Amino acid sequence: MSKKEIQKRRMMSYFIEATNHIIEEEGLEAVTVRKVADIAGYNSATLYNYFENLDHLIFFASMKYVKEYSEALPCYLKGVETAFDKYVAIWRCFCYYSFSKPKIYHAIFFDAYSDYIRDSVKEYYEIFPEDLVAESEELLSMFLEKNIYERNISILKSCVKEGFIEEKDLYDINKMTYLIYYGMLCKILNNKDLYTVDEAVEMTLKYIKKTIQCYSTCL
């Protein structure tokens, strides 16, 4: 890294850490530019030298929680052999971590800044490469995709390769899976049905598996 890049990383880290502090202490909705700047020890104008707006900053701060998921994923995949079992394991891990922190994951994948997520994900990992935990090219590709829809397609393609589903059904399965996941995430955010995290995970996986099984001739 050049001195300029090191300085940029250091300054961004101050604001990201301040944002994380507010999220942990007061919740995501309590984050404001003024609060973050005060805690970081700089003025608001300095913050805007490194982040386009508050949504951009919140996105970067939220990536800390994606790291928790990516670090846990290898344990979920341990001993998994088939593409279908890998697909289910990845969803189990993602559901657990996203349902445990639904506001954070909603902010990353569905809020205002999610329209720019692909470029922002790459930008984040260029600045903080140590946070990109991926043990294979397949997982690396998934982590760098721009949204849930594209991430799911990237791992569903392995199920096509191993013959669990046909390519012609890929996009229908993907759309249904997306709707199942998003529906449960919204239920949790709105405190509907009062599921525990484990209950929400199991119910989501139940319908995700059923979706593939309806299209598969070998499951």
UniProtKB/TrEMBL annotation:
Pfam family of the protein (one): TetR_N
InterPro entries in the record, alphabetically?
A: Homeodomain-like_sf, HTH_TetR
- Any one GO molecular-function label of the UniProt entry: DNA binding
Keywords assigned by UniProt, alphabetized:
DNA-binding
The Swiss-Prot or TrEMBL record marks DNA binding at 32-51
Keyword hit for Nuclease: no
Question: Which Gene3D superfamilies does the protein's record reference?
Answer: Tetracycline Repressor, domain 2
**HTH tetR-type domain: from which residue to which, for each copy?**
9-69
Give start-end ranges for the coiled-coil region(s).
none
Q: Does the keyword Transcription regulation apply?
A: no
This protein's source sits in the domain of life called Bacteria
Q: What is this protein called?
A: Transcriptional regulator, TetR family
